[in-house]
Design goal:
It contains 4 helices and no strands. It has 75 residues and is mostly helical. The protein is globular and about 30 Å long.
Length: 75
């Protein structure tokens, strides 16, 4: 189960990176909008931490996408 959790977090982080880059947004720009340290966002994007639902909602809003878009890993 731990392996699957790790894989999920990596996919989630990768999807956030994918959306951010598609919007031509730099990591520091997103972290500024979120009022989050760059290191915190790096941990989320690399799958090294499990963000709260509240944080994920903030990320979706900052990226101007529907919350469920963060979980579309098949794209």
């Amino acid at each position: 189960m731990i392996h699957n959790d790790h894989l999920f977090l990596q996919q989630l982080g990768g999807r956030i990176v994918q959306i951010r880059k598609a919007k031509n947004m730099k990591q520091y720009e997103l972290s500024d909008i979120l009022s989050m340290d760059d290191s915190g966002l790096r941990k989320i994007e690399s799958g090294r931490t499990n963000p709260t639902i509240k944080t994920l909602i903030k990320i979706a809003n900052a990226l101007e996408v529907d919350f469920k878009e963060l979980f579309r890993f098949d794209q």
